[in-house]
Structures are given as C-alpha cells and as structure tokens.
Amino acid sequence: EYGLERPQGYSVSFHYNPHVEYHHFGSSHPMKPWRLTLTKQLVLSYGLEYTMDLYEPRPANFNELNIFHDREYLSYLSEITPQNAKPDDPQYIAYGFGGDSNDCPVFDGLWNYVSLYTGASMSAAYNLLNKQSDIAINWSGGLHHAKKNLASGFCYVNDIVIAIQLLLTQHQRVLYIDIDVHHGDGVEQAFESTDRVFTLSFHKYGIDRHGWPFFPGTGNIDEMGPKDPANRGKAHSLNIPIDDGIDDHQYKYLFKTVTSKVIEKYNPQAIVLQSGADSLGGDRLGRFNLNIKAHGSCIETVKSFGRPLILIGGGGYTPRNVARTWCHETAVCVGATLHNDLPTHIPYLQAFQGDENGGGILYPDLHNTKRHDNLNTDAALQKLIEKAMENLRYMEG
Ligand code: TV1
Ligand code: CA
Ligand code: ZN
User: Fold this and answer.
1) Ligand 1 in contact with 98 (CB < 6 A)?
2) Which of 143, 195, 209, 251 is most exposed, with minimal Cβ within 10 Å?
3) How far is the CA of 81 from the centre of ligand 2 (A)?
4) Is 30 in the pocket of ligand 1 (CB under 6 A)?
5) Angle between the 319-334 and 35-45 helix axes, to the nearest 10 degrees?
6) pTM here?
7) What is the reported pLDDT for 8?
8) Residue nearest (by alpha carbon) to ligand 1 atom 14
9) Mean pLDDT value of segment 11-20
C-alpha cells in the first residue's frame, strides 16, 4: 500500500516510551521533545510498526544511571525542581545547570525525562545482547554531551555511554559513530582510557565571525585521545571537523571512506550510531546542507557491515525534518521504501504542510534552503581524509 517492501533478513526493534514527549525545556529552547511525537506518528502512518518489534521500556533507575554518573551529581539531578532551584548555588553552577546560555534548564519532570530516554537506550542494548534483534532503535536518546558529573549542551545523562557499557559486558570492541552536527565529546571523553571503544564523530568545527567557536569547541582532526603511549585509549578516537555548507555528495563520500576504513581496521563486534538530525540542511542550529536521503545513506553504509547495531537520535531542531529523517532511517533499517507523498490520514499533517518546498511530502529538497554557503572544497576534504587515514595508522591493529 505505501510501497513497503519486506526486509532483507534484518530484525529490527523500536524502543520508545511515549511519556518522554510531554517534557518541555521551556518555550524558546530549541530542544523540543514533541519532535518525537511527530516521528512516531510518521512511522505509524507508513505502517512501519508491522515490520519491527515495538518495546515500551521502563525508565532507568538511579543505580543504572550510576553505572556512569557520580552519585552526588545524580542525587542533585533527582532532587532539583524549578521550585527549589537556586541559580547562584555553587553546585547548580558546577553541575552545568542554567548559566548565561541556559542550555540545560531545570524543568518539571527533568529526572523522569532523563530516566525515560536512558531506559530506552538500555532496553535497546539488552535487546541486542539477548539477540532479540540485529538493529535496535531509540530515537529519544543520543544525548552525547553529558559528562559523569556535568550537564552540557541540552544533555543531562549520557544514555549512549550507559548503553555502550552494557554492550561491553559481552563484546570486546564497540564502535561509536556520531553524525550529529556537534562533536560527540561526552562519549569520547568517557572512553578515552580504553581500547575497547573507538569513537568517531563527524561535526561542524570552527570559529564564527564573532569569534565564537561552534559548540562544544572540541573535535579537531588532531584530537585522537590521550597522547601517552602507555594509555590504552591512545588513537582510539577519530574526529572529522567539517566547515559550513557541506553537500550530499561530499558528506556521503567522506562518511563512507572514513567509516569503512575504521570498521575494517578496528573490526568492532557491535556498533552504536548516533544519528543527530541537526546535520540536515535548514536545521535551526546546524550549518550543513544535507538532504534526508544523504543523511540516511550513512545508516545504510553502517548497516551493510552487518554488525549488531544500536541506532539512536540526538540533536535536530527543525522538528518536521527530524521526524522525516528518523522515519526514513527506520525504513532503511527494516529495508522498506517509502512513498514521497505523506499518507493523508496522519495526525499532525499540518506540521508537514506549507514549509519551504516540502508541503505534504517526505523528502523535501533541503539543500535548496541554502542557508549556508559551502565552504568545503573537494581538495580540502581530500586532505582531511588523508589525515584521518594517517591518524588510523597510530591505532594498534
Ligand atoms: C534557551 C533558550 C537555550 C534558547 C540555547 C544553541 C538556548 C541555544 C536557546 C543554543 C539557542 C547552543 C552554546 C554558548 C556555550 C553555549 C542533543 C559559550 C538558538 C545533542 C547543544 C548546543 C547541541 C549548545 C546538543 C549550544 C546536541 N546552541 N537558543 N545553545 N556558550 N551552546 O553555544 O549536540 O544537538 O540557540
Ligand atoms: Ca558528531
Ligand atoms: Zn547536535
């Protein structure tokens, strides 16, 4: 009916607790959990729920979050509310809440929110460990900036680190790949001293015309983890810094060349892929010019290696395009092809009407939103690939 073709033998599970949708960071904050409502509605309207196992995971508990985060930080996080928060309390500032940018506000239900998205990532990890699926999806997770005792960049609890730690109970080597437009610094830092996790992040890197670095300001090509040769984590991080406006062709080539080499060399037993949708063209915070299918081709590339895979969300600040992308990528996982015309019976259809040139369709041309000139030359990208290949030679085989 909707162009659904049956899978090529991959079993896919979808881990989602709808209560996560009802949390609000604040009216002007770019992180909108209701983009997950839109995503779920699109997935359902294309009938993709019949092609996967659906799970409604329980929230993670304190002790589970304590696998990575400090007790003191978690106690604070579990007790803080908009009513009892004291913005000049030294702990409030030290733990990364509020601040000038208000990236990490304290909002109603905050502890419930972090427990729900982390519970879903844990459920995805357990499902792979129990061999219940080949690909486990959690679009509500992917909060890659959180540190063990610090909230950062809209992230309070690092569900990715916790999911990887679960995978490490059975797998010797786990590869983390991050296509969010921001550097996956929290995950990189968490595993900087081990050779059992390799972290690979593609992101915008650079300083703007006002002298501000693009958040979080780390992730240049020469940042490969600890330099100390005695440190097992040495050369087990690879960062791919990209400039504004990269297009589909360039990104696909860069991603495929680098990722294939990393998989070939590191030979991971499981992969976690953070698929932040803020690397799309027209994103409110992003700087790239990618279309949905180019973004999705990264998932296809990773899937083709046939390793157990957790696919998680992340950033994405133009909600209708976040939903389109993650719906498309869900279809990629199950091996389905979707009609460009959106099903007419979907709730929230108006959310997909009347935008740029995407009224009523799944695959609008996002490159033509042309908000960022392409500052990446093919020659510069070729040099970047060469440097990446050189960095990989420092990793012991
Ligand atoms: C409240 C209200 C907070 C409006 C934050 C954009 C806001 C931003 C807001 C914002 C905003 C950032 C910084 C500045 C560091 C600060 C989920 C020197 C319109 C994974 C996190 C980006 C990205 C943080 C998260 C960044 C993710 N950009 N409006 N804040 N200070 N913070 O630059 O990787 O996608 O922008
Ligand atoms: Ca990234
Ligand atoms: Zn991001």
Assistant:
1) no
2) 209
3) 30
4) yes
5) 40
6) 0.97
7) 56
8) 101
9) 98
Ligand 1 near 315 CB (within 6 A): yes
Catalytic residue among 183, 328, 367, 372: 183
Average pLDDT over the chain reads 95
Q: Quick: pLDDT tens for 185-199.
A: 999 999 999 999 999
* Shortest-distance atom of ligand 1 to CA 155: 17
Residue nearest to atom 6 of ligand 1 (CA): 285
User: What does the pLDDT average to over 95-116?
Assistant: 96
Cα of 102 vs centre of ligand 1, distance in Å, is: 8
pLDDT band, very low/low/confident/very high, at 5 (cuts 50, 70, 90)? low
CA nearest neighbour of 187 among 244, 82, 272, 267? 272
Mean pLDDT of 226-240: 94
| Ligand nearest to C-alpha 178 | 2
Is residue 183 among the annotated active site residues?
yes
The percent of residues in the chain predicted with pLDDT above 70, rounded, is 96
Residue 301's nearest CA partner among 311, 286, 288 is 311
Whole-number Å distance between alpha carbons of 258 and 234? 18
Q: Is the CB of 28 under 6 A from ligand 1?
A: yes
* Predicted confidence (pLDDT) per residue in 336-353, tens digit: 999 999 998 888 888 888
Complex ipTM, two decimals?
Answer: 0.99
What distance in Å separates the CA atoms of residue 191 and residue 247, rounded to the nearest whole number?
A: 31
- pLDDT at 1 (0 to 100): 41
pLDDT reported for residue 355: 67
Cis bond upstream, residue 216 (ω within 30): yes
Q: Is the pLDDT of residue 7 over 60?
A: no
